[in-house]
Amino acid sequence: MRKISILSILTILSLAIFEPTKAQKNLYLEELKQWDDDRISALKDPNGWLNLEGLFWFKKGVNSFGSASTNDLVYDNPAFPKHVGDFIYEDGKVYWKDGSTEKVKINDGDLVLANSESLNLLTRPEGQYNSQWKDFAWIVIQREDKVGVRFRNLKAKTLLEFKGIERFPVDAKWRIKAKVIPQNQNPLMIMNVLGQNTAQKHGGQLVFEVEGTTYRLDAIDEGGVRLFVAFADATSGKTTYGSGRFIELDRPDAEGFTYIDFNKAYNPPCAFTEFATCPLPPPQNRLSIAIPAGEKKYGQH
Q1: Beta-ladder partners of 178
Q2: 109 — alpha (psi -120 to 50), left (phi > 0) or beta?
Q3: Does residue 215 contact residue 290 with C-beta atoms inside 8 Å?
Q4: Which of 20, 83, 106, 249 could bond 24 through an S-S bridge, CB–CB 3.0 to 4.6 Å?
């Protein structure tokens, strides 16, 4: 997302003893508007979450794929071939074989690959190989012991009819200074919607106050420049998504402090589609306080 150099202004906004000027408030609103615009653009991107129409898990061996009910993996859409081809899943590898009348394009970035039948599609990083037939695209994914294919319709109804996400009014009180307490000795156990538990690198415990009460959130260190938090609060299942929301924040400064801007709390992919495998907030990240900031709930997922 585009960066705006307003760190000093945002710091001032966080201090109750100082009343920010109208210009400073407007600059903060501008930054959040840009953040929201970038967020919407990412959702609508061909690799975003709005165009998903399938998530199929493989069995060992041949997995036939197409719109006909006789396939192992059925995408029920008359615009899709009855049999577009087969996934062969064996020895921890996945290969693709075109159907007798169809030809699927497999890309590695901007490069169209040849001899795809000898190409292992189960590689890292995930999504390196993108397969496409007309307006339909898919990638092979792995979630612990489950391997399958995430399927997209680039002209999906959920994408074409998307009108944006309702959000709470911006309130600078929800940009809160937090002390980051290192927890490097213990991994952070996170469960996803498939019921799988994974050990994540602990990014530290965020300790902060709201109206004189101390709260804590455990952050995940995903290896980038920012920390990631999955949390729920007293609005979850009411005005916000029932399974909680996500937030990202800067790593701590030299004194061990950062800021949690709940105005940037956003819905997980599972709020938009049933074909995502979202992490869930760990029990200790389920706050008793209501946080009416950030994105409100979307859809019925």
Answers
A1: 258
A2: left
A3: no
A4: 20
State residue 4's pLDDT score.
42
Output the CA torsion 70→50→150→75 (10° steps).
0
| Of residues 108, 113, 145, 142, the one with CA closest to residue 128 | 108
pLDDT bucket at 25, cuts 50 / 70 / 90: confident
CA 288/CA 298 separation, integer angstroms: 22
Amino acid at 57: W
Residue with tokens 């408030």: 25
Q: What pLDDT is recorded for position 297?
A: 95
Q: Give tens-digit pLDDT for 190-248.
A: 999 999 999 999 999 999 999 999 999 999 999 989 999 999 999 999 999 999 999 99
Check if the beta carbon of residue 215 is closer than 8 Å to that of residue 201. Answer: no
For 66, 67, 74, 81, 135, the CA distances from 88, given in Å and listed in that order, are 14, 18, 16, 18, 23
Alpha-helix runs per DSSP H in the chain? 7-13, 22-44, 157-160
Determine phi and psi for 104, rounding to 5 degrees. -95, 135
Q: Is the pTM of this model over 0.90?
A: no
Q: Which two structure tokens, joined as six digits, stand for 14?
A: 């966080």
d(CA 232, CA 289): 9
Give the residue with greater pLDDT, 9 vs 259: 259
pLDDT band at 288 (very low <50, low <70, confident <90, very high): very high
Architecture of the CATH domain 52-155: Sandwich (2.60)
